[in-house]
Amino acid sequence: MRKALDVYNHIDTLWGRSTAEGYMALLYIQEGKYKEALESLKRADYFSKKLKSPYELGLIYRVKAEIRSKMGKNQFLNDIFKDYLNKDLKYYCDCGIELLKKVRESYEVDILKALRKE
Questions:
Q1: Angle at CA 45, nearest 5°, toward 35 and 3?
Q2: Which SUPFAM superfamilies is this protein grouped with (predicted)?
Q3: pLDDT digit string, tens, across residues 48-85
Q4: pLDDT of residue 5
Q5: pLDDT of residue 15
Q6: Are 62 and 95 in contact (CB under 8 A)?
Q7: Are the C-beta atoms of residues 43 and 49 closer than 8 Å to each other?
Q8: Contact, 21 vs 40, CB < 8 A?
């Protein structure tokens, strides 16, 4: 994943970059690197909004929902993300579902529906 981000930095393309940054945020969280995860999520947000792809925007909402669902169980994670992800879990799930329905991504929608039930 890190190598993919290096490639994006060299070729200066938007397509897929937000997806890579979003998944990198999740990987950083697994590693306990919460500040790096937040910076990666912010970049993912920026690139998805710049590209305006419903799929990439929806995918970033899915990443936000996953992180938001973990915040209640992890105080360190919550402390880092509470200002950036200040809406409830349902909000991020609903936004992601609406965007992903436009591109018929049922797999991602199913994940968001499952997260919304937490």
A1: 65
A2: TPR-like
A3: 999 898 999 999 999 999 999 999 999 999 999 999 99
A4: 43
A5: 56
A6: no
A7: no
A8: yes
Spell out the residues 6+ positions from residue 18 whose beta carbon is closer than 8 angstroms to its own: 43, 44, 45, 46, 47, 48, 51, 56, 59, 60
> Angle CA(82)–CA(95)–CA(79) in degrees, nearest 5?
10
Say what the pLDDT of residue 104 is: 77
Question: What token pair was written down for 101?
Answer: 């329905």
Contact 26, 41 (CB under 8 A): no
User: Under a CB-based contact definition with an 8 Å cutoff, are residues 69 and 89 in contact?
Assistant: yes
Provide the whole-model pTM.
Answer: 0.84
Rounded distance between C-alpha atoms, residue 108 and residue 9, angstroms: 27
Hunting for tokens 């209640």 — which residue is that? 72
Token digits for 38?
């937040």
Instruction: Give me the pLDDT at residue 51, please.
Output: 87
CB 60 within 8 A of CB 18: yes
